[in-house]
Amino acid sequence: MIVRLIISALAVVISSFLIDGVSIEPWHWCVIVAVVLGLLNTFVKPIIKLFSLPINIITLGLFTLVINGAMVLLCAYIIPDDHFHVDGLGSALIFSIVLWLVNWLLSFMFKNDK
Questions:
Q1: Where are the extended beta strands (E) located within the chain?
Q2: Which of 2, 6, 38, 65 is most exposed, with minimal Cβ within 10 Å?
Q3: Rounded to two decimals, what is the model's pTM?
């Protein structure tokens, strides 16, 4: 679980450097951002996906991108603005896509085969 947290925090740092509309100051707050995003994705996101199922079916699953962006915006709302700032929904959408991609690549690189 610690390795997963480190990978997620590293993905948050890399993604925030790649996206102009997202900032994390100071850099060690990326661990808190990773924890809050993980908790939101575990507890809040399934409920929102359940309620948005009809529109998700109509858009063939593309509305999930909007839900991911909303989770990033909710995380930015929970964490103080001087530590984690997102400019808007567009930046949150791009951040969530880049975060997913970086997280996937890092998990693939540090995969622990037993």
A1: 22-24, 84-86
A2: 2
A3: 0.89
CA distance 72 to 81: 13
Burial 52-74, CB ≥16 within 10 A → b, else e: beeebeeeeeebbebbbbbbbbb
86 SS3 class: strand
Q: What is the pLDDT of residue 98?
A: 94
- Assess contact for 86 and 92: CB atoms under 8 A: yes
Please tell me whether the peptide bond between 80 and the residue prior to it is cis, using omega within 30 degrees of 0: no
Residue 109: per-residue pLDDT: 86
Contact 45, 67 (CB under 8 A): yes
Residues 40, 70: contact at Cβ < 8 Å? no
Q: Which residue has the tokens 């929970």?
A: 78
Identify the segments of the chain with pLDDT beneath 70.
112-114
d(CA 42, CA 51) in angstroms, rounded, equals: 15
